[in-house]
């Protein structure tokens, strides 16, 4: 009898050890945040919504859609005339920024999480913060210049390279580009009134540092100049 009781005890113990954890799911690992979708100010727009705080400043509320797995955001705003940036923080999906009037800006949002180290950046959008009595705005400074700053470019057998960039304008009336290129930080005019977003057959020599920039002109005579880019050849 004692033997049977002991055997039954072992049988029940085996059942408990084999089946006690059935149905329990492992805790899922936290997920990294995804990129936010920007909402306002819209891409390549003129922002006329905001609170004017002085003759030169206004407060604009930037907005975006909530990003999955994010609990906070870093908002990076760049003055495209001075290249100065400011970074704001938010836990909601909007933030108020004090900006200069009649000035072009770019902005993007970084989604962050308090439980994972990964982050995600939104697209970068550009807008003009409206100014008093301004009816026509200058084009945005050209960007996405290639070769980019700090690049090391292998000189092809032809000895020629292509310079390319991206232009944009709130009025969609870009008339042309002037391209400056040379071996000093005050490059000379290489080609004027370029109607495309590239210049081909630019002669270069290996082992030289080059500088270049793009001036954008619209149909009303307004202009803007990109930042100065430097690259080396090899």
UniProtKB/TrEMBL annotation:
The keyword Protein biosynthesis does not apply. It comes from the Bacteria. Residues 1-22 form the signal peptide. InterPro entries: FN3_dom, FN3_sf, Ig-like_fold. Keywords: Signal. CDD domains: FN3 (cd00063). The keyword Chloroplast does not apply. This is Fibronectin type-III domain-containing protein.
């Amino acid at each position: 009898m004692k033997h049977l009781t002991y055997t039954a005890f072992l049988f029940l113990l085996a059942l408990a050890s084999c089946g006690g954890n059935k149905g329990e799911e492992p805790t899922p690992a936290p997920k990294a945040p995804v990129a936010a979708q920007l909402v306002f100010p819209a891409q390549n727009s003129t922002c006329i919504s905001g609170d004017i705080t002085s003759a030169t400043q206004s407060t604009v509320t930037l907005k975006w859609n909530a990003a999955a797995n994010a609990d906070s955001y870093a908002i990076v705003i760049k003055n495209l005339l001075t290249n100065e940036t400011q970074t704001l923080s938010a836990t909601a999906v909007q933030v108020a920024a004090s900006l200069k009037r009649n000035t072009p800006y770019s902005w993007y949002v970084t989604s962050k999480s308090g439980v994972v180290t990964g982050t995600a950046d939104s697209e970068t959008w550009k807008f003009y913060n409206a100014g008093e009595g301004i009816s026509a705005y200058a084009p945005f400074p050209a960007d996405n210049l290639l070769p980019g700053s700090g690049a090391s470019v292998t000189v092809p057998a032809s000895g020629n390279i292509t310079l390319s960039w991206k232009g944009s304008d709130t009025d969609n009336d870009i008339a042309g580009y002037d391209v400056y290129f040379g071996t000093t930080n005050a490059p000379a005019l290489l080609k004027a009134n370029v109607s495309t977003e590239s210049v081909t057959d630019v002669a270069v020599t290996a082992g030289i540092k080059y500088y270049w920039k793009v001036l954008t002109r619209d149909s009303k005579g307004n202009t803007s100049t990109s930042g100065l880019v430097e690259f080396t050849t090899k």
